[in-house]
Amino acid sequence: MSNNINPNVLKSFIIKTIGADKLTANQAQKYGVDVNKYAEANVDENAYLELDEIIQDADLYQQFAVMYNEEQEQNKEVQDKEKEAEEQAKVKDKNESGV
Q: Sign (positive/negative) of CA torsion 29, 61, 24, 41?
């Protein structure tokens, strides 16, 4: 699966995932971001990374893109299971009504 996600979609995902538009060092560690990669991406060297810094850093972009793809895949699996359960329920109802 491609990790070439639209930057605006990825920004929205990051905000939803971390609950803010800034990524602190503690949050980064929680999501498995290497300390050195965090430092490299922190171009203005404040206590957090802004969304644009995350998007502009290829390694962080890639990591969050993978997380986004994994979430999309999980959502698809859940939807597929729900759809399959609905179809099975319809078949069961149809079979019971025909008996």
A: positive
